Known about the structure:
This protein is of the alpha+beta class. The protein contains 13 helices and 19 strands.
Amino acid sequence: MVCAFLLLGAALGLNPNILPAFDQLGLLEDLLKISFPMTTLDLCKESLRHIGAIDVTGFKEKTGYDCIVFYRPDLYDLLLSHVPAKNISFNKKVVWVLQNKEGVMVRTSDNETYHGDILVGADGAYSAVRQNLYKDLTKKNMLPTSDTQNPKVGHVCLVGTTRPLDPEEYPELKDNRSHFTTVIGHDKAHTWMTCTLPGNRISFSIKEQLNEDITKEAMFRNSEWTPENNTKMIKEVYNFPIQQGREGDRKVLGDLIDATDPELISKVFLEAKLFETWYHGRTVLIGDAIHKMSPCAGQGAVNALEDAVVLANCLYEISDGQQAITPEKITEVFKDYREQRYTHAKYQVENSAGMAKILSGQKMSERVLRSIIYNIPKWLMSQKYLKQAGYRPQIMFLPTVPTLPGLPIVPQKLSKRYQREQTEKEKENERHLAKFQ
């Protein structure tokens, strides 16, 4: 149950950690049609002097996939085109959840109720499903103290994506790859990113580093990816320089802002939080509802999709119709899902926080760290990314995508049900052939 999709946010990227799953589903070819490969992440001073780059050129030859970037609504359209319309209800807001040994019931703001065996909360950082679950666990004195604490906030961010632009004014749009540039502000708390996208669009993201004493009131006003109170920040950043434009006619952020529909520019606090309680009873959480990451490492959407893949694998084991779906069995499945995902999700929350310091930090310690990282030899950086690319959970009840030689793949739990079904198919084929011999 979701609200109608809003065309908000900056670019979205996916990488070799999750692209094998799209390959398995037969969606990869269509996904690549709406995407640009991203091979370098350039870093500049406010003067636009180039000071370094994270270079992943040749990554595809070693991992099988490019890192790709695209306009977020294009992915929505692609996924929606493969889901029957009757399976999605729009403009629903969860207001109440009740679960017991018999099942789970959800009531939405339009006073509709829905019944099921399980409830998957994939409703974002301010998950209503999580809030209902945690409220119930708090009453039972079962919620860890850490899960009651607010997320850490490091930046406030203004994001948007332009309407289609003229490639003659923005020559980088003529390339069939993404130009991704981060500019570090001079004597200011701002850093800003621009990224070229298919369809002659440019995505932008402006981050302002905040003091650690963010008030609860400010956090309460946060509306997450919805346009609200943007005017002041737009005025502050309007004349910040960007790499885009012709020689002698360099553009500023204001040019991109003016080329973006005002209602599609939004401001959000960038938060980080790993929750400990991922499930209880018949309710389980995935994505930002359970691990909110800084967007600087491009791992938020990737990890949400990885959650979905692993949870689907776990559920597949008990959905063969040959066993009773008891509360104990459901708990066993949810526990298995968390055990498979928690360590990696924790690593990526921490890694994303580290990347936020490297790409957006303005403290002296963060500037020193940035200087070190951007001067690491390419071969050493390549080793790091290859190691990270080795974690790629696949859908274990579909034929898996072969691994390229030399890529250190993290072992994945096999599906006993799928193996049993494949063995039964082989025996059936053998019996069928024997009839004709």
